[in-house]
């Protein structure tokens, strides 16, 4: 089979590509500096024209839904039986910690509760494993080659690369890690080494700026050149004409979360509502979203 690397502008385009491939993967390894996970619904608060961009933050959830379903929604929590596709997200330890601290407080007031722990990272990793069916691999500090045994036991697998995982792409991606040095992220050389060792038949790539994709001297072009030298056929799916639409959409979605949604969520945290918490949050967010995005010039 011909090895292929499929280039996208944003991570939310990858699930659409996988659906069109009509293939089943026993294993998906995603290299990312963010956990794109949600139980759903929140991205639809944005205007329809922003849905694709808003769904950047739920790409890993989409993988899980497509390849076996979400354990929490399928009612299989605390059972040994897991969905058939193993999904592993390799993420830097530092950004995992930030996700964990941000999420732990919300989970304690929702329908999900675990035994209290002093370590929010372990708590969050446990949540992702038991409720979402997603495994987390902290890299750095761990070497990507530590994932090789997973690859060797899978007959078919996909490597998904969000370029913000690599330190080399800080100036060429849409959501770089800020205030990070080279020891807090893996390099392009580390990723190429992993590909050389494991030889995935299908690679998906996303989140590189169009300006980097079209620049023959960019780090992105170096990555593509290396993949070609390893025998990969390069395809493009849904690459935007320029960066302006993506940057504006990302900015508007991020500012809605920071200026509106996050505040509403914290206002409700003091009330011990259990499952009612998310319902009340959605009721508060819907009118606030309409007002926010209308002021930004969107039709709602």
Summarize the structure.
This protein is of the alpha/beta class and 300 residues long.
Notes on the protein architecture:
The protein is an alpha/beta fold. The protein has a single domain (4-242), classed as Arginase, Chain A, CATH 3.40.800. The chain is built from twelve helices and seven strands. It has helices spanning 13-21, 51-54, 59-66, 71-74, 93-107, 120-132, 148-152, 188-198, 210-213, 219-229, 244-269, 276-295, and strands at 4-7, 27-31, 86-91, 134-138, 157-162, 202-206, 233-236. Strands 4-3-2-5-6-1-7 form a seven-stranded parallel beta sheet, with helices on both faces. Helix 5 (93-107) crosses helix 6 (120-132) and helix 11 crosses helix 12 (276-295). The radius of gyration is 19 Å and the shape is globular. It starts with a strand and ends in a 5-residue tail after the last helix.
Number of helices: 12
* Overall number of structural domains: 1
Query: What is the average per-residue confidence, as pLDDT, rounded to a whole number?
Result: 88
- Secondary-structure element series: EHEHHHEHHEHEHEHHEHH
> Gyration radius, to the nearest Å?
19 Å
Structural class: alpha/beta
The CATH class is identified as: Alpha Beta
Distance between the termini: 46 Å
**Could you say which overall geometry the principal axes of the C-alpha atoms support?**
globular
């Amino acid at each position: 089979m011909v090895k292929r690397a499929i280039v996208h502008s944003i991570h939310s385009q990858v699930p659409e590509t996988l659906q069109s491939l009509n293939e089943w993967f026993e294993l998906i390894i995603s290299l990312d500096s963010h956990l794109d996970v949600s139980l759903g619904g929140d991205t639809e608060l944005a205007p329809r024209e922003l849905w694709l961009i808003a769904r950047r933050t739920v790409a890993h959830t989409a993988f899980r839904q497509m390849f076996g379903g979400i354990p929490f929604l399928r009612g299989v929590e605390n059972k040994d039986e897991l969905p058939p596709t193993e999904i592993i997200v390799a993420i830097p330890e530092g950004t995992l910690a930030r996700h964990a601290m941000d999420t732990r407080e919300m989970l304690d007031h929702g329908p999900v509760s675990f035994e209290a722990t002093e370590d929010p990272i372990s708590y969050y990793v446990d949540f992702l494993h038991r409720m979402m069916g997603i495994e987390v691999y902290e890299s750095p500090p761990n070497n990507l080659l530590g994932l090789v045994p997973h690859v060797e036991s899978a007959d078919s697998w996909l490597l998904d690369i969000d370029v913000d995982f690599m330190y080399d792409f800080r100036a060429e991606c849409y959501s770089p890690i800020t205030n990070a040095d080279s020891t807090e992220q893996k390099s392009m050389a580390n990723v190429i080494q992993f590909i050389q060792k494991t030889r995935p038949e299908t690679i998906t790539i996303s989140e590189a700026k169009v300006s980097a994709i079209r620049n023959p001297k960019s780090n992105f072009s170096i990555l593509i050149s290396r993949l070609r030298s390893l025998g990969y056929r390069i395809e493009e799916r849904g690459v935007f004409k320029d960066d302006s639409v993506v940057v504006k959409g990302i900015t508007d979605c991020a500012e809605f979360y920071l200026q509106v949604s996050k505040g509403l969520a914290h206002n409700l945290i003091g009330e011990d509502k259990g499952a009612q918490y998310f319902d009340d949050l959605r009721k508060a967010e819907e009118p606030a979203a309409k007002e926010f995005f209308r002021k930004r010039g969107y039709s709602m």
